[in-house]
Amino acid sequence: MDKIDKLAKFNPEQAMFEGSRKVFGEFGGVNSCIHPSSTFTTMDPEIMSQMFSGDLSDDGCYLYGRHFHPNALNLGMQMAAMENTEIAYPVASGMAAITTLIRQVIKGGGDIVASSNVYGGTYAYLRNLAPLEGGRVTFVNSNDTQDILDTVSFMTNLVIFEMHSNPALNVANLKELKQELPDHVKIMVDNTFTPLMYTPANLGADYVVHSGTKFINGMSDGTSGFICCSHDMLQDLMDLNSGQLMLSGPVLDARSCWQVQQYMQTLPIRMREHSLRAHEISDALASTNKFKIIYPGLETHPGHEDAKLQAHADFRYGGILAIDLETYDNARRYVKLMQDSKWGLNAVSLGYYHTLMSISGSSTSSEIEPDVQEASQLSPGLVRVSVGFLGDIDQQVDAFYENLLKI
Ligand SMILES: *Cc1c(COP(=O)(O)O)cnc(C)c1O
User: Fold this and answer.
1) Which residue's alpha carbon is at the smallest distance from atom 6 of ligand 1?
2) Quick one: 148 and 8 in the same domain?
3) What is the pLDDT of residues 269-288, one digit of tens each?
């Protein structure tokens, strides 16, 4: 099979099943053990000195918990298999993944082109902190290929965007962008909204990051994040003298790695259910013809074809939709109606088994200035919905539909 064919046939669900190591627990437990050690012995001091000089990085040789540990390796291998990258490294939050990777790439002075339609924390970091660290950041008001290409220059080192922009759900055409972008520009994609649906590394991303706090965790009981990259990049990140992972220390601890890995086993079945319900709810809401319903699975969505071309069909169009209720007051009423009827929680974050709803402009995207929000078509009445999968699906669809008719 040639490379293109292989990529087209790549199935992330099967890959994460095959690619994770089945490590049995002590006494033959079907679950692996948690290895909560901050330090590790070596049988011969010579091995330790080789590790410090960077000669040994084989599995089985551990030095210190901040550097790497067995549960981080297991979880990282499973994530790398899913994302089809050489390796992945679990960290304490999505922001830790994003900032650590950016710092390593720009090394105190790089040119970044970033979509402003990204997670509010990513935007705030790029706008307020990256410049203090030598980053020259130019924002684009979309994740559209032509807009990004128009902004990239011969100086640009790194382009940053999300496959489905947050919260407006514009769909990036990564495949097309990769073909057009000059070779010196690296692409970093935040795939938090769309795990399993897209495999950005197959479409041309050099680095893939995740907030593991969202769908990957699925229980909203802890924060985590992932950097998915090449072996060479991870070696740089873990370098004892100059690696951002080693020296700023965001590694996810052993107990959390173990727990996230338990949850990851059900990610494929959860994602299918999130997506199925989000699609049905979007169809029902769109049929009212009352407000703009934003969901990449709708044929009226401008990114529908791009999504279809790039996604793994089995996972449809993701578990997130947005409803533009035009005014903040409408949005507040709808969220309250949904919460009072027990079908939605007014809370930030996403990927939980219960439906989470937030009014983006005044919550998770409030870091983004009003004029930038307007240019990015982020209306004050935009309600972002992370569709949960509790309860009877028909009653759930009805609740969304009936409550919208009341607005
Ligand atoms: C939540 C989120 C982040 C940040 O992740 P944390 O785990 O909260 O640090 C980054 N990107 C996207 C798209 C997110 O939704």
Assistant:
1) 94
2) yes
3) 999 999 999 999 999 999 99
